[in-house]
Amino acid sequence: MNAKTRDNLQSQATQTAVDGANTPATSSKPGKDWKDPKRYLWLMGPALPGIGLAALAGYAVAPKKLRSLAWTGPALVHGVIPALDRAIGEDKSNPPESAVKTLEQDKYYDRIVKAFIPTQYAMTFMGAWLASRKNTPLSDKIGITLTVGAINGVGINTAHELGHKSNKFNKFMAMAALAPTGYTHFVVEHNFGHHKRVATPEDPASSRMGESFWKFLPRTVVGGIKSAVKIEKARLARKGKGFWTLDNELLQGWAMSAGFFGATTLICGPRAVPFLAAQAVYGASLLETVNYVEHYGLLRQKDSKGKYQRTQPEHSWNSNHIVTNLFLYQLQRHSDHHAHPTRSFQALRHFENAPQLPGGYASMLLPAYLPSWWYEMMDKRVIDHYEGDLSKINWDPDRKEELMNKYADYAAAVAAEAKAQKGSSSEEAA
To answer: Model's pTM, two decimal places?
Structure first.
C-alpha cells in the first residue's frame, strides 16, 4: 500500500478500523434514487436450507431412484457454488454512501437473514429422521449427514450476521442458528475475542503462514472455547456474578444445543445421535475452514509503544465473487466487516487496496484441506501483499526459519520490483 493511500485510509479511521478510499461507486444516482440491484438475489441465502429440505424430501419419497439427493449439500458447497462463482465472476460495485442509512433501516434484509432459521431446523429434523431409519444405506446416511452439516455450517454465518446486532432478540436468534452445530460459544468469542485480536499471533481464529488447516483446527477450536469462557467470566465478574448463573450466555447457548439434540433424539430415536454429532462436527469445521482462509498470514504491525495498529482493510482476505457473497451475506467483504462489525451485510463495501483471494470462499475450501495445494496458492500471495518484507508476516513459529529461507530469493525479487515501481511513480509525480 503506498503512503498516499494509507494517509487517505487513516484520515477516515473509525474506532476499530479504517475505511478504504478509492472504492468504486455502485451508481452515479443520489442515494435517495439508488435501488439495490441485488435486492431479490439476497433471497438465495435463506433459500439454501430450503434446497436442502427439498432434496431430503425428494430422497424420502424415492430413496432408490433419487439416492444422489442425499449428497446435495457437499455438491452445492464444493461443486455448484464454486463453479457458478467462476462462471458469473465478480461484482466490485458499492452502494453510495448516501444510501447506506436507508439500507440499514430496511427491515427486509433483517427478515431475509432470520428466514434461514425455521427451514434450517426443519431440514435438520428431516435429516435426523432419514439417518435414523434402519433401511437407509450407510453411504446415504453419510451423504445426508454431510448435507445437513454443510447447510448448518452456513447457518453459522447467519448467526454471525445476527450476533453482531445489539438487539437481544437478534442475539437469541443467533444462538438458535448455532444450536444445531453446538457452536454457540462463537457469538461470545467472535464478537469480543476475534474482533479484538484479529490478525495477531494471539488470535486463535487467525491462521499463520505455513500453518496447515489441520494444525490450525485444534488450535482454533480449543483456543476459541477457552477465550469464550475467559471473556464471559470477566463480563459476569463485572456484574458481581460467578460463572454458574442463568445470566451466563455460554450456558444459555449450550442449553439450547442440548435441548435441540435431546428433542431430536426423543423424536427420531437413539440412532439420531451419531448423525447429530457428525453433522455438527462437519458444520463447525466449515466455519473454521473459512476462519483459516480469512486472515492467513496477515499481521497487524506494532507501533513504537508496542501496541498493535488498528485493524485496516489490509488485514483480511476478501473476495467479490458474487454467488458466494449472495449465499454468505457478503462475508467475503471481510475488511469492511472488521471496520464496521455492526454494519449489515447489504451495506458492506469493496476496498480496492484490500488483499484479494484467487477465488470465492467456497472454492477455497478444498485447497485449504490439502496443505501443499494451499501453500502453492497462497504463500507467494502473502509475500506479494507485503511487497517482499518477510518481517511483516504472521508466521507459524515452528516453520518461520524454514520458510524465510525457502522464500528469501522470491521475497528479494518482489521487494526489488516494488521499490522500482515506487521509484517510477515518484518520477512521474515529479
So the answer is: 0.91
